[in-house]
Amino acid sequence: MRKTILFAIVLLSASPVRAADPVPYPEGYRHWHHVKSMVIEAGHPLYDSFGGIHHIYANDKALQGYRSGRFADGAVIVFDLLDAKSENHAIVEGARKVIGVMRRDAKRYAATGGWGFEAFGGDSRERVVGAQADTACFQCHAGQRERAYLFSQLRDR
Amino acid sequence: MRKTILFAIVLLSASPVRAADPVPYPEGYRHWHHVKSMVIEAGHPLYDSFGGIHHIYANDKALQGYRSGRFADGAVIVFDLLDAKSENHAIVEGARKVIGVMRRDAKRYAATGGWGFEAFGGDSRERVVGAQADTACFQCHAGQRERAYLFSQLRDR
Fold it and tell me: What is the pTM of this model?
């Protein structure tokens, strides 16, 4: 009996409820709802990390979350960052620099506000955050706790 | 019999195959596929008309058209123009200035390359092109004949 309980505890410990669970690549996000966009230029405090033009995309659950303020598990938000090239008094999109992904799972990612964080370099599937989600992502997002840890708000029109 | 034929001719003349048919407001376009974006700044030759940040959205038929080069009747493309506000070394989206709409119907809009053109001011349903599609829209788009009369190309990634 004691062995059985111990085994159950070990099983529970090995269950997927842990902060380091990798966030999957957001397949098909380019067809999701386009939430808003922004250009970050030289001189902006986040230019080194996020300089360029970025678009925010939300899957259906995330779109509902933006509206209600409550994000269900499975809500996914993508921050899609492209180079911003100046051409003849216009800013046009260049190559993809990185995509950032936030995936909601209140239990799995409890250590980082209920959101899993990951980023994929360029057009690749190469993970550039991995186990660094806490320091590389959440330390900034933590300040947005009152806004569900998000910087973006829905431009619902 | 002659009366019947005459009546049929009148009916045909009154059929919807005419260039002035109004292009309907593109309901739900904010959920369509986001094709690409661009910022037009002061100094650009189109700044007076199109200054700001614009996003291009395509319905499913238009998305297929971008990919195949052949646009089926019912394909709709939206040019969504917002104010571009400079804030702390960033460009953020402001109020909507206008949406431009191209709707494919090869017969109905044969006089303007098979595309109907319309624009709606701000967030309203107020038509700002109406019967001026030829001079206000098509005269520029005509130069893009080899590209299905479009300026935008799909950023298919």
Answer: 0.86
